[in-house]
Amino acid sequence: MAQPFKRRAFLQHVGLGSAMVGAGLGGSLVAEEAATQSKGEIIKIVAVSCSPRQGKTTAQGLKIVLDAAKAVSPERIQTILIELAGLRIPVEPALGITLPPGERDDFPAVAEQIADPHLKALIVGSPVHYANMSTLCKAFIDRLGQAFRKEFNLSGKLAGTLAVGAARNGGQEYVLHSIQRALMCHEMMVVGDGRPTGHFGAILWNNSGKDDIATDEFGVKTAQNLGRHIAELALRL
Asked: Could you tell me the fold of the domain covering 59-236?
């Protein structure tokens, strides 16, 4: 197990400024956290949507996961959805390449949410792009490694995954396993969707052609089961 780390020093390491960026990070977290603190220990679950399309099926699926997680213990569990769509997540820092002066980098604000000591679980969702995760998801995974893996700051945290494809068997499991393998490199504990579906994570099918996963009853159930399962385990931690 990695030693606890100082959050301030970590945020300086990833270059976090004082301002939050991106609509996906929300503005009411302080009030929500204060309300939760008054009712007991905060259990924070963060979901990151790695789709370049804001508010579409990946974000919809993650919202189902988070709603199910919140329902397990509304007074203790705090859920946050971060959408990377519209954010700039350059991969160069993960490769040791310094960004040019003034180059926009929104990853540090995302990293701040993940660095919160109340975090118990991280859920990563991606659309299926040619049987693999999205380019945006790979950039996020690479930056996550650069920011957190050196000191194994995510060791012992729970990890869940979600994938949305254009076909019922469109490569979703490939994407889940690819993301899971990366998160296992952080010594995170991978959690699948819970019973009765009980497999590898949330697997959804955008089968309507209208960016709506609501008609995929089985896929929605896997998302709900993932949220419930990861919340129950987080409470045990």
From this structure: Rossmann fold (3.40.50)
